[in-house]
Amino acid sequence: MSSSSDIDLPLLRDRLVSIALQAGVMITSATPTTTSSGTKKNTADLVTETDQAVEAYISKELKTLYPTFSFMGEETYKPGMQLGPEPTFIVDPIDGTTNFVHRHPYISISLGFAVNRVPVVGVVYNPFTGKLYTGVKGRGSYVSTIRDGKTHGEEIRLPLKGSEALTGLDSCIVIIEWGSDRSGSNWKVKCDTWARLGQSKDEGGAMVHSARALGSAALNMCAVAEGTLDVYWEGGCWAWDVCAGWVILTEAGGIVVDGNPGSWEVDVDHRIYLAVRGAKEGQKELVEEFWSYVEGEMVYPH
Ligand code: IPD
Where along this sequence does the record place binding of Mg(2+) (predicted)? Predict the structure, then answer.
């Protein structure tokens, strides 16, 4: 069995950063053109030629640099593929494809790396804003700004806001996402839970400060890692949406638990997540409070 201590993780991170910056050039110079089918499972699940070209570029580079490691990418994933214990790159070439198609600049290249199914390196890069997030397990996570292919200004350790105490959902901004599954019981759980989160306390709700649906799971994880947004809850996303951000968040003191009430530890391919920012106190209480507002249980096959 491989161990992450056998691998030079900072070097691997630096290589992922170089690949992300080059992929960023491909994305910012492209015109979003949907593929011949344009969609995957439905009209809200989009794929462009750029998603496919960027994934092909990333997997080719990684195969050359790390020929024995496995690769799992959104655009080449086939139903039934499972994440194994071997060192594996977990990649979303464009996280936020819907934003990309609409020319809304909240997208990222999400490059994660897991060993024994545990995320250990994460690089998330938004080529439109130049924001680059990196994390290596045990070595912290950082944000910097890239201009003209180079780091501009200092690299800042996360979280940005320190680790202010969490005092309850009524002082949090919560990120929710519609995702592309819009029917059945999963959709009902989401809608009913969103309603309760926002609703006034007099009527039994949590009355969160506000909710955001920004369209890139990886950047959502990074916003929670920064501490500029407090909580992210989603069911239905995949390991490639969260693997890189997972390292960045947990290295900033944040946690990822089950999006359904109950489990404090979940795997990266669990598909139902609740991410909470780092805090000197109140994290556990906030998770329990959130779970008390989840209306039912989401079910997504792995
Ligand atoms: C999607 C985004 C979105 C999330 C979906 C993901 P994609 O990834 O991360 O924010 O709500 O669950 O599938 O399709 O743009 O790579």
Answer: 74, 92, 94-95, 241
Instruction: Quote the ligand 1 centre to 2 CA distance (angstroms).
Output: 30
Return d(Cα 85, Cα 115) in angstroms, integer: 6
Taking only the tens place, the pLDDT of each residue in 99-151 is 999 999 999 999 999 999 999 999 999 999 999 999 999 999 999 999 999 99
96 Cβ closer than 6 Å to some ligand 1 atom:
yes
Whether domain 4-157 has CATH 3.30.540.10: the reply is: yes
Is this structure's pTM higher than 0.90?
A: yes
Q: What topology is assigned to 169-291 in CATH?
A: D-Maltodextrin-Binding Protein; domain 2 (3.40.190)
**Nearest residue by C-alpha to atom 13 in ligand 1:** 237
User: So where are the chain's domains?
Assistant: 4-157, 169-291
Known catalytic residue at 241: yes
**Beta pairing partners, 256:** 275
Per the annotation, binding residues for Mg(2+) are: 74, 92, 94-95, 241
